[in-house]
Amino acid sequence: MIRYATGGLSLKISSHISRMEFTTASFPASLNSLDQHLASRSYVTHHKYNRTDEQVLSRLAHCRVSEHKHVARWASHVASISGIPITENQNMAPEPQVERTPEIILEKKNLICRNLQETVGEDRLDAILKERDLKVYWGTATTGKPHIAYFVPMVKVADFLRAGAEVTILFADLHGYLDNMKAPWELLQLRAQYYEAVIKAMLRSLSVPLDKLKFVKGTDYQLSREYTLDVYKLSSLVTDHDARKAGAEVVKQVAHPLLSGLLYPGLQALDEEYLGVDAQFGGVDQRKIFMLAEKYLPMLGYKKRVHFMNPMIPGLTGDKMSSSEEDSKIDLVDPPNVVKKKINKAFCEPGNVTNNGLLSFTQYVIFPYLDKKPFEVKRKPEHGGDASYANIDELTEAFRTQAVYPLDLKNAVTIYINQLLAPVLKEFQSKELKKLSSQAYPQANAKGGQAPEAERAVDLSRIDIRVGKILEIEPHPAADSLYVEKIDVGEPEPRTVISGLRKFVDRETLDGAMVAVVCNLKPANMRGIKSQGMLLCASDKDHTTVEVLVVPEGSKPGERITGDSFTQAPDCQLNPKKKIFEKVQVDLTTTDSLEVTYKGEVLRTSAGNILTPSLKNAAIR
């Protein structure tokens, strides 16, 4: 079964070749021109091999192209998926066979596996490396602008390439659209081009060869007949529970999920087969999707793949680095002074080595970038003088014992990040890439440029309030006024929620209770434990009486609580800087009849109205 081919790209190549002269005198220049033309092209653009590919390959049949790696790679690729043999007349020299000694195999494996948190299928990896080099893919949704955290997977991609692996980078444009429609359809093509330019610039910054790297868009093959049929087959096997569980870490979780979000994990599993790879690489947050692939691909008659997982590293604020949070990320085109400013604001407690984004970035990006050179800290003599560290363990211990202070680490990391970004920044000064950036990520400007999407009105619909059932409740070990609850809110795993109810409601009353939980606040650390939601309660003016809201009997965990006029999908996560919940909260009150209302409209589930036990005309907090 043909999975994909060069298809539409060959139309462009054919047009290019039709202008070439293959005379003895002009041949070298023409072939050089074609090689350069192919160097910047993605090789896979359609799911089905077409006759143009055959014509182009035939046109080159008697040319000596083995010394032109982009032409040679393209022709080899077409031949491998079309069944057209590359004859001796085509003079396509096979790749030189390097003896695969145990030492070489071990060296490749060490490169492939270094700094990974987990590898599933190591026995499969060993078997492949004994025979040939690995084929691996990494996928990313082309939504928000790539930021400096993308260097974490790029360092591993560089390891794969240095180990001789063939690396496919999948731009999951269709996946990105399905995941709560993050990227508008009209921007998908432009954003894929932007991602390709950025990733190539990052890998060049890491000084890695790109001759075994290729880019593919999901829409190049995911709309094919064969792929669509396999989606239907998979949907007849995967349970709702398994689909939800697999996507729990990567698909935005809402009370009433769209079917598209349930399809997402299965599509990613099928990509392994349709990209023709041996392995998939991703963050450890992808583990449940990888396990879904391990379970269900064999049911379709496809082999299990190897799965490589990177650790998740914290951003500058201590949480996950996000393209939607300015303070948590550094843009790939930030100038040195902006990088320094953002690093200086980074969360970095003296001696704290467990939740330190700068140390994590140093471990997974800077030390591999240094390639066995020491990490240098530059200081004035009165501040301890210069110091160098051969590995992350030495640096971590020095920071833990405060031989290296936060400002020392920040200054050193700033220097290395600016070194990494300098080549990227230089490339993106070109007019072409500046134009691409503005088209892929349009911004409002004073000259009448395209404006961003209009800001959504602030009302109850923005808030994800769900029915929850308290499964466990314990006193907070470090705070007398707090409870730590495990609450089922309709997701594969219960959420940990911290509430300040210990002085107002006894533990026995809350244990097993049905409650109202705000589920799209940004998770927050509360005395050492991260809270993933907030219990809604009614409170009198003096905050001396606090009551948990009463959820009607028959409501189910995960069911949304809202008013009849506010049924639009809530935000995936509220931006704390915009104070959206705080603005809505002002209009959440109880009535004389004990009903909970927003601007006079009663909050309800499918089973009835939300009430408070006794507080009338009280605020909801």
Could you please describe the fold and organization of this structure?
The termini are far apart. The chain has 20 helices and 23 strands. Strand 2, helix 7 and strand 3 (166-171) form a beta-alpha-beta unit. It is of the alpha+beta class and 621 residues long. 37% of the residues lie in helices and 15% in strands. Helix 9 (185-205) packs across helix 17 (406-427), helix 11 packs across helix 12 (259-274) and helix 15 (357-370) packs across helix 17.
What is the count of helical runs? 20
**Which regions are unreliable across 5 or more consecutive residues at pLDDT < 50?**
1-12, 21-25, 42-48, 86-94, 444-454
Distance between the termini: 59 Å
Q: Taking Cα atoms only, what radius of gyration do you get, to the nearest Å?
A: 28 Å
Strand order of the largest sheet: 1-6-5-2-3-4
Oligomeric state of the chains in view? single chain
Taking the sheet with the most strands, its summary is:
6 strands, mixed
Mean pLDDT: 83
Fraction of residues in helix: 25-40%
The proportion of strand residues reads: 5-15%
Structural class: alpha+beta
